[in-house]
Amino acid sequence: MKEESYNNIFKTTFLFGFVQVFNILIKVITNKIVAILLGAEGMGIISLFNTTIGLLKSGAGLGISQSAVRDISEANQSGDICRFSKIISITHGVMIFTSLLGIVLTVILSPYLSHWSFGNNGYTIAFMVISFVVGMNIFSDGQLAILTGMRRLKQLAKASMIGSVVGLLSTVPFYYFWGKNGIVPSLLVTAFSSLLFSSYFVRKIKYDQIKLSIKELYVGASPMMKMGIALMLVTFLGSLFDLVISAYIRSCSGLNDVGYYQAGVAIISGYFGIVITAMSTDYYPRISAIYNDNIKLTEELNKQSETGLILIFPLVILFVFLAPLVIQFLYSKDFVISISYTDYAILGTIIIIVSNCTGMVLLAKQVAKIFILSVLLQRLFLIGIYILSYKYWGLLGLGFAYIISGVVHILFMSMILKWKYNIYLQSKVYKLLLLVICTTILTLFFRRVDIVVIRYALGSIVFLFSCWFSYWYMKSQMELNWLLMLKNKFIRRR
Length: 494
Description:
Largest sheet: none
Strand content: under 5%
Radius of gyration: 23 Å
Distance between the termini: 27 Å
Shape: globular
Helix content: over 70%
Number of domains: 2
Order of helices and strands: HHHHHHHHHHHHHHHH
């Protein structure tokens, strides 16, 4: 039973881990092209556009892409085709409304967005055009929510992967021929390709299209929107936080430093976020089904935390040791300065792997007020920490600030869960977390050894230890023998 439980977690994680790795490879190629063709300034412009798009998408989207997953999943499992068709129709109606809201809101705010992001009104027209990117992204996210709620995991994976490839192939010419003037058209093409393929797979779902009046749509969507708005506020606060920090860096040091910072963020939050994203795809629906059973929630929380730490352990060690080479490969030599951020932000990422698992438990329980309050207090505190850290220590300070953000988040979530529901992280998770952090710090010291041979010998030893330990932990503590499982699977296929 124990093996089966861990096995299901690993299977889902590996499926979407593969999708995330694929998408990251596409992103690596894109970032490399941007770094070569547009430089740090171009990277900074794109990051400010994307940050603003994320802010507007989270605000206008009303969190439906997240809250709809639970309702769709419950309706699908019920076997009631009428109920299921009604939920899908309601979701589509809300998606149309929120997409139009995103377009209108972006157009109205475009002069202010230009001034807040770039310090002038020169990008007002660009933001008006980007309004369609916001609208398409909102609708596309809603389509993916439908696939997620129905557990159409393969279709979800295909939609994501195909959209990424088409987006890359269609946008590169804009950067090559038009330079920085091609950024806005490339964002439009990427958003359209994601919308096109997500819609393609959703159209394959069989359900009865139900025409709903505005009143029926409002009544049906109210429960969904209640939790959605709470989630929207949380996402909005996160996007606002990113925009404030990027704008502050630009005002202090210019677009180049924004580019260096965002390059580091892309590596830490994007590339190592594959574990978080892969886990959350299945983890959230799973704990939502047992949200009233605190004992089972505690078990799932600890299993998921263990899985995340074990999966990320070798990846973190390998990245930390090869960070200078990795950054040069992903971007260019000019971006090596980003290492002052990534060296320390990676420690925060290790903590956030676990803290996100705790935060999702609150989402599953739908305690919106508590969740929003905790996130609001955390963000207000962190904005001050980030600004002060950058003011005195630059990118290095932002790395330390990221560690603090991880510590603050896990303390907030853990205390709330323990105090209100008696849900808690077991000692084995804390011990595993401490081991991964200490080994990572040791790797940072080894990388600074002057003698090349000794440096690489020490790095290799630590990396091999992380691989051995992960395998040993899966075999002895999780009762998983992955070598045997892979062998048996291969033999069955033969």
